[in-house]
């Protein structure tokens, strides 16, 4: 390109330079000829004629030269035109090439600009989503960028978020720091020394601890562009570190003061032992550090201990719990218990554990074992005595029941004698009635015979005689009265039967198994037995509720109610009332027996369920009735309690669980 432009310029210069050369040459030729003619004239005298010839000749020469020049000019013009056309075409081609290159480069710049915009957006999003506070300051201490985390950590007010001058921000931050002066000096020092890198911790006035870093930004030629500041809230980490230090100090303090031996084992040597661990072995703590752990184990126990330790530390649980013997420094053999688990000590696997000296405990256990053997022997003796006691208790219970029956015997006999008396009377009457019946039947037979003989007159006489005898024997009355006598006797016999059955059930209560029973019926049965004891002193008022059947020992509960009812009757001096109520309440059947007797004093009320305690006269009570009643109720998982007022009466409440079979 440069060569072509240079040739074009040479061609143009030649076009303008050639005419000048031709004219100059003509002038020189003319002058030369004039000089020659002048010299000839001076020498020969032919100067004027030569002068006349020289001028046309010079003009002719100039004309010839001009013609020659013009021909040359025309030739060069054509050459120049061809060159211009060629170069114009080449310039057009170059122009198209440049336009295509510009278009491509423009498209590339647009794509690069879009990519740069996208990366800038991602970078800004990354900066703003960072958990670390970031601020970028240029070389003139003007803020370029700060993320939301930085604003939050620094608690910047809205007007400072938009403030570009870092000096304004510095003053505000310094005033909020724990040491404003030191804060300013550190920041100014870093800006005065761009090459410095800083990493420190600062504490704000509200106690927040921030980890701060500052890094300068240089290009490849070490040109300084500014600084990047980062902040990370390490308040919780510092608190955790402080808590960890306190915990470690406490652990070390506890370990050193512990009454249990503490140790850390790594690579089969002791890395740490506390004073108690060393004391058990009879050494000082520093003597045991780096000592082999197997050296103090009794040789007989060593294979077992090694195997157990390997299984404990390599197993899935990673725990050790073992008991073996060691040899102390003074040669004493001690029993120890070891508890350990896997841990990491100074970056390597280790075992931490505790050791207890159980020598005394072992001796105690041996003595205790001997004592237990002796105790077991004593227990067998006690069990035998307890069995005998239970047998005696059963006998006492039965004796108490028999004693109760004995006390009620007269009343029961009276209750039985009454129906037996009128049954006997009715049977005597029936016996007399029966002596008349055969005579009447005999007359009827004779009438029937006469009817068969068809003797009308004899028959009518016999019929009249039979009617007379029927009236005299009171046959119609006998027939009517006999039915009443039979019904009354059956009722009396039934009453005797019930009394006997109730008495039988009561007397064999200990042999009765539990079954579903109606407690209202049990109370009625008990009343039948004790009625003779009650009827002359009190009226029995029954207020039975609708109660469910319950699984219990009816005979035993009958004994409970009998003791309560008899005590109630004995508490009434002349006449009174005994009220019996039953109800179903919250899963329990509640039986309440109240009397209007003399009552029980408070000093005696708390002892009425004690065995052999009684306030009755000698011979009128054994003191076991209510004690037995208490045991029976407790055996049924129930409750019994009593309330009383002297002069007003006593109330017993028995609560038995309402349960099916």
Architecture blueprint of SSEs:
Layout: H1 2-44, H2 47-129, E1 133-138, E2 143-146, H3 148-154, H4 158-161, H5 166-175, H6 180-192, E3 198-203, E4 209-218, E5 224-233, H7 235-257, E6 261-266, E7 269-273, H8 275-281, H9 285-288, H10 302-314, E8 319-327, E9 333-345, E10 348-357, H11 359-453, H12 456-473, H13 475-507, E11 515-517, H14 519-534, E12 538-543, E13 550-552, H15 554-571, E14 576-585, E15 588-595, H16 602-605, H17 625-635, E16 639-645, E17 649-657
Helix pairs in contact: 1-2, 5-6, 11-12, 11-13, 11-14, 13-14, 14-15, 15-17
List keywords for this structure.
disordered N terminus, 661 residues, 19% strand, Beta-Lactamase, 5 domains, single chain, five-stranded antiparallel β-sheet
Molecular structure report:
The chain is an alpha+beta fold. The protein has 5 domains: 2-121; 130-233, PAS domain (Beta-Lactamase); 240-357, Beta-Lactamase; 369-495, no CATH class; 512-657, 2-Layer Sandwich (Heat Shock Protein 90), CATH 3.30.565. It has 17 helices and 17 strands. The protein has a 5-stranded antiparallel β-sheet with strand order 2-1-5-4-3, sandwiched between helices. Strands 7-6-10-9-8 form a 5-stranded antiparallel β-sheet, sandwiched between helices. A 5-stranded mixed β-sheet has the order 12-14-15-17-16, with helices on one face. Helix 11 packs across helix 14, helix 14 (519-534) runs parallel beside helix 15 and helix 15 (554-571) runs antiparallel to helix 17 (625-635).
């Amino acid at each position: 390109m440069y060569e072509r432009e240079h040739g074009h310029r040479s061609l143009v210069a030649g076009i303008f330079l050639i005419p000048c050369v031709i004219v100059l040459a003509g002038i020189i030729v003319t002058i030369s000829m004039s000089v020659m003619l002048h010299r000839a004239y001076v020498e020969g005298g032919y100067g004027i004629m030569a002068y006349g010839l020289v001028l046309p000749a010079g003009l002719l020469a100039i004309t010839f030269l001009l013609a020659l020049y013009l021909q040359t000019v025309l030739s060069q013009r054509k050459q120049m035109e061809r060159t211009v056309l060629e170069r114009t075409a080449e310039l057009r081609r170059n122009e198209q090439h440049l336009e295509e290159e510009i278009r491509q480069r423009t498209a590339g710049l647009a794509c690069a600009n879009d990519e740069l915009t996208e990366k800038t957006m991602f970078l800004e999003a990354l900066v703003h989503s960072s958990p670390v506070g970031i601020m970028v300051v240029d070389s003139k201490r003007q803020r370029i960028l700060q993320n939301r985390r930085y604003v939050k950590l620094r608690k910047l007010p809205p007007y400072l978020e938009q403030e570009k001058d870092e000096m304004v921000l510095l003053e505000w931050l310094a005033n909020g720091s724990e040491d404003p002066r030191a804060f300013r000096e550190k920041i100014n020092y870093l800006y005065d020394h761009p090459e410095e890198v800083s990493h420190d911790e600062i504490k704000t006035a509200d106690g927040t601890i921030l980890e701060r870093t500052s890094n300068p930004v240089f290009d490849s030629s070490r040109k300084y562009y500014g600084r990047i500041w980062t902040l990370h809230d390490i308040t919780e980490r510092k608190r955790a570190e402080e808590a960890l230090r306190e915990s470690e100090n406490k652990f070390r303090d506890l370990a050193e003061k512990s009454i249990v031996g503490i140790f850390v084992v790594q690579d089969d040597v002791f890395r740490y032992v506390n004073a108690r661990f060393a004391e058990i072995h009879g050494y000082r703590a520093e003597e045991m550090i780096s000592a082999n752990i197997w050296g103090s184990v009794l040789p007989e126990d060593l294979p077992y201990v090694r195997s157990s330790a390997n299984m404990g530390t390599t197993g899935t649980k990673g725990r050790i719990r073992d008991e073996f013997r060691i040899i102390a420094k003074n040669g004493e053999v001690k029993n120890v218990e070891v508890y350990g688990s896997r841990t990491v000590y100074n970056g390597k696997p280790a075992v931490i554990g505790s050791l207890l000296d159980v020598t005394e405990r072992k001796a105690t256990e041996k003595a205790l074992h001997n004592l237990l053997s002796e105790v077991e022997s004593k227990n067998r003796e006690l069990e035998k005595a307890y069995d005998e006691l239970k047998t005696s208790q059963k006998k006492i219970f039965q004796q108490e029941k028999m004693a109760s029956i004995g006390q009620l015997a007269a009343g029961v006999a009276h209750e039985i004698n009454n129906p037996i008396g009128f049954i006997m009377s009715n049977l005597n009457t029936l016996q007399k009635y029966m002596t008349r019946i055969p005579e009447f039947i005999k007359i009827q037979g004779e009438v029937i015979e006469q009817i068969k003989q068809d003797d009308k007159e004899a028959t009518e006489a016999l019929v009249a005689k039979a009617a007379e005898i029927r009236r005299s024997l009171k046959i119609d009355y006998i027939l009517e009265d006999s039915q009443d006598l039979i019904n009354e006797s059956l009722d009396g016999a039934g009453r005797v039967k019930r009394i006997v059955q109730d008495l039988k059930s009561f007397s064999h209560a200990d042999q009765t198994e539990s079954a579903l029973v109606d407690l209202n019926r049990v109370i009625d049965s008990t009343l039948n037995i004790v009625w003779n004891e009650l009827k002359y002193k009190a009226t029995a008022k029954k207020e039975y509720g609708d109660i469910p059947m319950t699984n219990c020992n009816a005979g035993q509960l009958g004994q409970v109610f009998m003791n309560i009812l008899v005590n109630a009757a004995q508490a009434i001096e002349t006449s009174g009332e005994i009220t019996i109520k039953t109800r179903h309440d919250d899963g329990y059947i509640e039986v309440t027996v109240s009397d209007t007797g003399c009552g029980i004093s408070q000093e005696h009320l708390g002892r009425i369920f004690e065995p052999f305690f009684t306030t009755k006269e000698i011979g009128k009570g054994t003191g076991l009735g209510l004690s037995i009643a208490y045991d029976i109720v407790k055996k049924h998982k129930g409750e019994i309690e009593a309330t009383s007022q002297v002069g007003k009466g006593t109330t017993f409440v028995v609560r038995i669980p309402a349960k099916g079979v």
